[in-house]
Records
---
Amino acid sequence: MPEVQIEIGGRQFAVACQEGEEPYLHAAARMLDTEAAVILGQIGRMPAERMLLMAGLMLADKTAALEDEIKGLQAKIAAQEKTLAAAEERLADRARRIGELQDAGPRTELPDRFTDGLAELAARAEAIAEELETRRN
């Protein structure tokens, strides 16, 4: 099991890790060191245990905030996926309806009540046009 030397808050620590985990351990140590630097900059020198505790708590707070943000984004994605699924369903329904209408072919026959109504409107329009023509002359 490899032992890695890391530096946090200007102090050296020897830490054992599994083979191949060294890069992750160094990355974690850099994160802790960043938080420790903030603490030491504000408070000054303190015992290593307290410095590590405070740096760990700061990282935990940031992690909790990121987890909350992730949950919010996941909820937003789920809502958008639901909206998208509903839109896709409506689109598929409309595509089916269009297919049904195309398969049915064009409707050329109008019911008698429509043709009678149109004939009556045409007759009225002709009568109005004749009356206007007569008034002009």
Note: The beta strands are 3-8, 11-16.
---
Amino acid sequence: MDSFDQKIIAALQENARQSVSSIAEQVNLSRTAVSERIKRLEASGEILGYQVLTAAQTENGDRLKAYFEISHGGMECAPFVQELMKFPEVQRCHGTSGDVDLLVYVDVPNMQRLHDLLSAVTKLTPPGARIRTHMIMREWYR
């Protein structure tokens, strides 16, 4: 990933709905070059997806947040993460060192959806993989 890719990602993080033309202006490349780079970044797993946040999601303190701690014994993480990011409740995935291979941060509306999501994630993991759920009880922000 070069500096143009980094600038494109930064522009998309600021506003993922902006036009390719607008991004091209910001990064000093042609629309075609920006479009091709975005497709390549998506295909390579650098861009995992796009999401919509609603007022209810950002203002509703009643949502449940949790981490799935996944140990899968050497499975390639990038394709697995691409599948995980298809679930709108999956907010972030962190590849880690040590016994845990992946931490998956999820934000769900209720316990039933957490259970359903956990079941779906379990089906994606190889036999013998271990998933532990850690509920977020309280958060502090900088």
Note: The chain has six helices and four strands.
